[in-house]
Specification:
Blueprint lengths: L1 E6 L12 H11 L3 E5 L14 H8 L1 E4 L14 E5 L4 E9 L5 E9 L4 E8 L4 H16 L6 E6 L15 H4 L18 E6 L4 E6 L3 H6 L5 E5 L8 H4 L1
Parallel strand pairs: 1-2, 7-8
Antiparallel strand pairs: 1-11, 2-4, 3-4, 5-6, 6-7, 8-9, 10-11
Helix pairs in contact: 1-2
Length: 240
């Protein structure tokens, strides 16, 4: 199953134009079964969603899973999930994450025809101390849930490595959050976007989707991976 994480920067491209249609075409290039998007709504006011669900379905074959309480919103603190087709099982939990800036995460259980799995989609803060708190909050939430193949993905805003990284709390369970440069899109240097999974072996073929259109559509490049739901699931608590 092909999955992706993509910060669409409110559909504002590197040329300054707000072009939701380009985001849709990048998603069509990727062809994911599931994608986590960040910055999908206007930030202020009524938080109206920036993408057209009809165009998403027609052009990219993707269905927007409702997350927002706002009538015309798409995301929870800007986080949205898109899937190819209708899930046979879907349950969601929305979290408010600690930190100075308002941040949130979506925890969803899905079955897209290959078995149930869990998705944790998040957009971490700009301050390291916020990212540390947010990472610990997500890890605690994960440990409280029943064991299930889990992918954690999003713009985690972390470029530091090893002990300086706010993401190292995930390593004992999820393994290393392999850093692939995804920002800025025109000349990517910083690995701000990540996809990690539990149990180990769940995530394969991790790559940055770097095409001429992707370099123009947003200031981030999408991160893509393949997940193998046959990966063996043990007891989360005994593995911690």
């Amino acid at each position: 199953m092909r999955v992706a994480s993509y910060n669409i920067h409110k559909c504002r491209g590197t040329d300054g134009q707000v072009r939701p249609d380009r985001i849709v075409q990048v998603l069509k290039e990727i062809g994911p079964q599931l994608v986590a998007l960040q910055e999908v709504d206007h930030r202020f006011g009524q938080r109206i969603g920036l993408l057209d669900p009809v165009e998403l379905k027609r052009e990219a074959g993707l269905h927007l899973l409702a997350q927002s309480d706002a009538p015309e919103g798409h995301g929870w603190h800007g986080n949205a999930l898109l899937v190819a087709g209708e899930p046979t099982h879907y349950r969601r939990l929305r979290l408010r994450l600690p930190g100075i800036e308002p941040r949130g995460a979506i925890i969803s259980e899905l079955d897209l025809g290959e078995g149930q799995f869990r998705v944790i989609a998040a957009h971490f803060g700009l301050l390291r101390r916020s990212r540390v708190s947010q990472a610990n909050a997500l890890l605690a939430a994960f440990k409280d849930l029943p064991p299930m193949p889990t992918i954690l993905l999003g713009d985690l805003n972390e470029w530091r490595r090893k002990r300086r990284s706010a993401l190292n709390v995930f390593e004992p369970l999820f393994g290393e959050a392999h850093p692939l440069p995804s920002f800025p899109s025109r000349r990517p240097i910083f690995p701000l976007d990540r996809i990690i999974g539990w149990p180990r072996g769940l995530i394969n073929d991790l790559a940055v989707h770097n095409t001429p259109l992707a370099r123009k559509a947003s200031d981030h490049l999408p991160l893509v991976a393949r997940i193998d739901l046959s990966a063996r699931v043990g007891d989360v608590r005994s593995a911690a």
